[in-house]
Design brief:
The structure holds two protein chains of two kinds.
Chain A (H helix, E strand, L loop, with lengths): L3 H4 L2 H5 L6 H8 L5 E2 L11 H12 L12 H15 L9 E4 L1 H13 L5 E6 L5 H6 L4 E6 L10 H7 L4 E6 L12 H11 L5 E5 L24 E6 L12 E4 L2 H14 L5 H13 L1 H24 L12 E2 L10 H12 L1 E2 L1 E2 L11 E4 L4 H16 L2
Parallel strand pairs in A: 1-10, 3-4, 3-5, 5-6, 6-7
Antiparallel strand pairs in A: 2-8, 7-8, 9-12, 11-12
Helix pairs in contact in A: 4-11, 5-11, 6-10, 12-14
Chain B lengths: L2 H11 L5 H8 L3 H13 L20 E9 L8 H8 L4 E6 L6 E7 L2 H12 L5 E8 L5 E2 L2 E2 L14
Antiparallel strand pairs in B: 1-3, 1-4, 2-3, 5-6
The chains are: A alpha/beta, B alpha+beta.
């Protein structure tokens, strides 16, 4: 009998499974449960985009695409980046189509890290960065962002985390779970720290289309930073296309060439059907983004307002589709709060601690849910708070 | 966007939203929402609040018909006078003035085919200035007011950990 613990590599044994999962497993068995835990849009992909995917199947376009992605799609991405973010990336050579933004992140780390290299990761943030870095014998250096700084990464915090082994810094903005975003001045301050170094920026901009009040700015927009920035983006959040698994990386040519090498051996190419649908999304989907954003914005205000009315302080999220209310006034830890709220009222929210240091005292509630569910969740929260 | 347009859009998509909810969603105060909604009602921009019902799921018998009506317009009044004579009937759900091959679309509902046929034959077609009708019975409603009537399947297995 094989002892699988012995044959599994040390790195994978040390990686912890995500702490978010258990809330969904528990919620599954509950009558009338409401999930504000899930991190995906509640909209179905707009019909014209689904239709484009279906049409490509009807025509029999079921073969591999070029490794880097369909030429037309890469050109659409190139035009989109110019149109929406004023960034110039050549469709040929500077764009790689990936299986979700997640693959792009993995590729970027793999192409940059030697064992022992450090990657600065602001937290609370999406759960994948640290484990991906660890899997490469890299060292995640976690830097807590603070509510009083609107969950932005400050130049001082960045500077204090930089060492001679720093290879990259992840910029996860607009941020999941805090809703924090980085403005032009914030990015310029970071650029002052990074300029003249070989430290690369891995900018996870998957929520770039979902900002409220101000337009998203990429680190690649800041002078001298284009050459040291890898932009990760995708279709999941902007167009409600999570299940299509399609993302892309935009970066200087030598980096895209390196990532394409890895991508061609590990993945071959992203799903062809998804790529055809994505062309339609980019060419005719601006209106869909606007409509969904408008809808999210109303729900965002409603949920933040609701938390505040119930006496929980809540940073007004400026991007993505999460609220991150502070629950420390209840005297419970984040995990206790989520466990008890789920058991008592069958509402799933996620403890801030699942998103790394700085998350204690907070919970994440996603507002990509119907107004009916959000209203009901707030009523149940009110009832729950009274029992504490 | 103007506040009243935003309010109208929100209410058009879901008129069960409370003043408090509308206030939170638009950034207005609850008082402002209340006053604005009242004004919109009084000015007739909001014509009513109704549930969209799928009667096919009940055992209540109901038929709906769409009738194309040809009309001789009247001097000085165009189609308004005859449209008014039609829309006064309770059976009539909607009346639209159309471009193209006929003049008015009249949507009526009744308890049975016979009842609708009777209405068309006895009341609608006999109105002076109505020169012709063509009645189309609605066999099945798939979607009304942006609401899909089919039972939609939801994706069962979902989610990882984001």
């Amino acid at each position: 009998m094989i002892d699988y613990d012995k044959i599994l590599c040390d790195r994978i044994r040390k990686v912890q499974p995500s702490g978010i999962r258990k809330y969904f497993d528990l919620l599954q068995g509950m009558e009338g449960g409401i999930s504000l835990g899930i991190g995906e849009p509640d909209f179905v992909t707009p019909w014209h985009i689904r239709d484009a995917g279906i049409y490509s199947l009807e025509k029999g376009f079921t073969k591999y695409s070029p490794n880097a992605g369909l030429t037309d799609l890469r050109q659409s991405i190139s035009r989109y980046m110019k149109r929406r973010f004023d960034l110039e990336y050549a469709g040929a050579g500077q764009v790689l189509v990936t299986v979700g933004g997640s693959e792009g992140l993995d590729l970027a780390f793999r192409c940059l890290l030697e064992p022992g290299d450090e990657v600065i990761i602001p937290t609370p943030s999406f759960v994948c960065y640290g484990p991906l870095v660890s899997m490469l014998h890299g060292k995640p250096v976690l830097v807590e962002t603070k509510a009083e700084n609107e969950f932005r990464l400050t130049a001082e915090e960045l500077k204090a985390a930089v060492t001679p082994r720093t290879r990259a810094v992840v910029l996860p903005f607009p941020n999941n779970p805090t809703g924090g975003i980085m403005g032009k001045e914030d990015l310029e301050a970071l650029a002052d720290v990074l300029r003249g170094t070989d430290i690369m920026v891995i900018s996870d901009e998957i929520y770039a289309e979902l900002t409220y009040g101000q337009h998203h700015i990429s680190m690649a927009n800041i002078p001298d930073m284009y050459e040291r920035t890898i932009v990760i983006n995708g279709f999941s959040k902007a167009y409600s296309m999570t299940g299509w698994r399609l993302g892309y990386v935009c970066a200087p040519k030598p980096l895209i060439a390196a990532m394409t090498k890895l991508h061609q051996y590990a993945i071959m190419c992203a799903p062809t059907t998804s790529q055809y649908a994505a062309i339609e999304a980019l060419e005719h989907g601006d209106g869909d983004i606007e409509a969904m954003k408008e809808e999210y914005d109303g729900r965002r205000r409603f949920l933040v307002d609701g938390f505040r009315r119930l006496g929980l302080s809540c940073f007004e999220p400026k991007g993505a589709f999460y609220t991150f209310p502070c629950i420390s006034s209840t005297g419970l830890t984040s995990e206790e709060f989520c466990d008890r709220f789920l058991q008592a009222e069958h509402v799933a929210v996620i403890p801030g601690t699942a998103f790394g240091p700085g998350g204690e005292g907070y919970v994440r509630a996603c507002y990509a849910a119907s107004m009916k569910d959000l209203g009901e969740a707030l009523e149940r929260l009110e009832r729950f708070l009274k029992t504490l | 966007m103007k506040d009243h347009i935003k309010l109208l859009q929100l209410l058009e998509s879901d008129c069960t939203l409370t003043h408090d909810q509308l206030a939170a969603m638009t950034g207005l105060s609850a008082q402002e929402v209340k006053a604005e909604v009242k004004r919109l009602e009084e000015d007739g921009l909001i014509r009513g609040y109704r549930a969209v019902v799928d009667w096919d799921r009940t055992d209540r018998e109901a038929v709906t018909a769409l009738i194309e009506v040809k009309v001789t317009p009247q001097r000085g009044e165009g189609f308004d006078r005859v449209a008014e004579r039609i829309y006064q009937y309770d059976e009539v759900e909607s009346v639209y003035l159309m471009s193209g091959a006929f003049d008015l679309t009249v949507i009526i509902s009744g308890r049975s085919l016979k009842e609708v046929a009777h209405f068309v034959g006895e009341k609608l077609a006999t109105i002076e200035d109505v020169t012709g009708t063509a009645t189309h019975f609605i066999l099945h409603k798939y979607k009304e007011n942006h609401l899909i009537f089919e039972k939609r399947e939801e994706q069962q297995e979902r989610f990882v950990f984001e």
